[in-house]
Request: fold
Amino acid sequence: MITDYYQKKPTDDPGAVTPVSITALATVVAGSQVTITWTTSKATSSQVQYGVSPPDGWQDNVTAETDTNPTVTSHTVIITGLVTGKNYWFRVRSRYSGGKDGMGNSVMDGYVFSAYGTFTT
Reply:
């Protein structure tokens, strides 16, 4: 269950890239695993940071960045091996590299857009 989430926009130059919106953020817990899904308004990569205590503990657990070539708008990340009966915090991360910076140059590393939430196993 998502109890709360919000979207973070890029801080480098918010006017340089059209923000990628993250919607339909959802979790499905089954025992010691969770499936996290979300949708983005532009094709991006998929990654999740998670842990039992924000903000320090969750950054220790990071899934591999997937959907990098090609990028996607529908994202699914499955995390296994979780401890049952625990409350977890997570952050979905979607990297968009199709924009341009303030000078009109292509953005190579891309901007990372994220949304936060919690779930209980």
Remarks:
- Residues 1-11 have pLDDT under 50 and may be disordered.
- The chain has one domain: 7-120.
